[in-house]
Amino acid sequence: MRGKGMTYDTGFVRNGRSSRESFEPEVVKRELAIIRDDLHCTAVHVVGGDPDRLEQASRWAAELGLEVWFSPYPLEQTQDEMLALFADCATRAEWLRATGANVVFVTGVELSVMNEGFLPGKDTAERVGLLLAEPEGRAERLAEVGKRLDPFLDAAVKIVRERFHGPVTYACIQFEQVDWSRFDFVTVELIRSAEVADLFQAGVRTLVAQGKPVAITGFGTATWRGSGDVAPRSMEIVEYDKETGDPLRIDGEYERDEAGQAAYLRELLEIFDAEGVDSAFVFLFALYNYPDDLDLASFGLVKVLEGRSGTAYPGLNWEPKEAFAAVAEHYAKP
């Protein structure tokens, strides 16, 4: 692959609250350097809901020579709010590109299920549940998603391209049926589960055969045994605070399986290499609001520690998992 990528979370913002409380410049700079030097990444997918944080992290990543995929990630926003966010971020991304940085602008991620106005339901879980609940009429409901999303993407891309003059893409869920003629990359959130394992590689091959460079984002799995079989839903073992939405605790007994998470990522990276994917972005470096026991449900390559430093990288509050070494080994290959 040309782009050996990692997703870096600057904080997902919901109802004005960020999932990443601390955003210390020296920590962020050090983590981005680790992504480049120890994970052997050449590109980073910088995601989050705070434009200031996105700009800062993207600037620091560019200073390290990383290709930056500048990716505002709205959650539970109206269409007008999303367009305002994209306009702001596109202006910031263009400033960075004008300094000589290699920047791709990502016009949102999974917008139809993560935000208002495209599907019925008060939140992501309810929207997905209603969309997939009954087999009867499911195909029609899925087709309707694309019809509702398409005019919004038209408006969003127009706003972005007026402000940003580099390559533009959108990180889709496959059922959104995006018209890729308006974008420079075909970018798909592609997570393998046991249900589609026998079709997965052929599906990647079909994406690449369309002709445009393909980027894969959002792929990974949690850290409990068997999570790879249900990878798109492997975070559903968590109980959340009904008022704030914060993760509270794991909902039962699960066996930790770092080797399984590592093997899953290794297998997918090998598939992406074999099928000619342009860029792949492992999801994700760290999930900062899933510390300690909650890490069982985390896709992170590192286990976040609450209130204490790790030993592998003193001064940073995490420890690398087996998946960290697996990704580093794969990306180190010429």
Brief descriptors of the model:
334 residues; alpha/beta; 8-stranded parallel β-barrel; two-stranded antiparallel ribbon; 9 helices; 38% helix; 19% strand; globular
Structure description:
This protein is of the alpha/beta class and 334 residues long. It contains nine helices and 14 strands. The strands form four sheets. An eight-stranded parallel β-barrel has the order 1-4-5-6-7-8-9-12, surrounded by five helices. α1 packs across α2. The longest helix is centred in the middle third of the chain and has 26 residues. The radius of gyration is 19 Å and the shape is globular. The mean pLDDT is 96.
**Overall mean pLDDT:** 96
Distance between the termini: 10 Å
Shape: globular
Radius of gyration computed on alpha carbons: 19 Å
Q: Fraction of residues in helices?
A: 25-40%
Number of helical stretches of at least 4 residues: 9
Question: How many beta-strand elements?
Answer: 14
The stretches of 5 or more residues where confidence is low (pLDDT under 50) are none
Tell me the series of helices and strands, N- to C-terminal: EEEHEHEHEHHHEEHEEEHEEEH
Query: What portion of residues belong to β-strands?
Result: 15-25%
**Main sheet strand line-up:** 1-4-5-6-7-8-9-12
What is the gist of this entry?
By secondary structure, the protein is of the alpha/beta class. 38% of the residues lie in helices and 19% in strands.
What topology emerges from the helices and strands here?
Layout (H helix, E strand, L loop, with lengths): L2 E7 L3 E2 L2 E2 L6 H13 L5 E6 L2 H13 L3 E6 L6 H20 L4 E7 L1 H4 L9 H9 L5 H26 L4 E5 L13 E4 L7 H13 L4 E6 L18 E3 L6 E4 L7 H17 L4 E4 L19 E3 L13 E3 L1 H11 L2
Helix pairs in contact: 1-2, 2-3, 3-6, 8-9
